[in-house]
Amino acid sequence: MEYPAPLSDVGKEQAEHLARRLADEKFNAIYASDLKRAWETAAAIAEKENLAIVSEPRLREMDFGVLESLTWDEVQRKYPEMLERWLEDYNQPVEGGETLDAFSMHVLSFRDSGNRKMYGLLSITYSCCVQ
After folding, report:
1. 56 and 28 in one domain?
2. How many other CB atoms sit within 10 Å of the CB of residue 21?
3. How far apart are CA 103 and CA 91, in angstroms?
4. pLDDT in the model for residue 50
5. Mean pLDDT for each consecutive 10-residue tract of the chain (131 residues)?
6. pTM for the whole thing?
7. Would residue 118 count as lying in a domain?
8. Residues spanned by the domain of 89
9. Residue 117 is assigned to a structural domain of this protein
C-alpha cells in the first residue's frame, strides 16, 4: 500500500485532544497500524504515556489499490464501472486492491491473537477495522 498520507492539521489537533482525554488511563501497550496517520496519532498518546509503539501491519486500513488518495468525486469520474462493481460486491477487489475478505482476515488475525487478552492494550487503527 503506497498511501503514507500524514495527519492533516485537524488530525493533529484531534490526536492531541485524544491524548489529553486518555491522560488518566493506564495503558500497558500501544499497537498502531504501520501507516503514517495511525502512527502519528499513536505517537501523540505514547509520548504522554511514556510507552513505545508496536508497529502492527494487520491494523492497516483496507487497500483500495488505484483508488488510494483519490476523492470520491475523482473515483466516480475516473473509475465509474469499477466503483459500480465494487459497490455491488465488496468482495470484488478494485484494481491493485484487496478483497473485503482478505482485509477482514488480517484485522481478525490481530483481534484473535494473544494480544487480545492483554490488559491495558490500546490499538490505534482506522474506522474500517472496528466496524
Report:
1. yes
2. 10
3. 10
4. 83
5. 71 90 88 88 86 89 89 95 91 90 87 72 72 53
6. 0.79
7. yes
8. 64-97
9. yes
Q: Which residues contact 84 (CB under 8 A, 6 or more apart)?
A: none
Identify the pLDDT of residue 10.
92
Amino acid 96: pLDDT: 93
Supply the pLDDT for residue 2: 45
Q: Are residues 43 and 87 in the same domain?
A: no
Give the cell for residue 115: 494480544
Whether 52 contacts 78, CB under 8 Å = no
Helices (H), the chain: 9-21, 36-49, 72-78, 80-88, 100-111, 127-130
Look at residue 83 and give its three-state secondary structure.
helix
Q: Are 124 and 42 in contact (CB under 8 A)?
A: yes
Using CA atoms, how far apart are residues 118 and 120, in angstroms rounded to an integer?
Answer: 6
For residues 65 and 96, the answer to whether their CB atoms sit within 8 Å is: yes
Q: Are residues 22 and 38 in the same domain?
A: yes
52 phi, psi to nearest 5 deg: -80, 155
pLDDT at 126: 72
Query: Rounded to whole angstroms, how far apart are CA atoms 81 and 71?
Result: 16
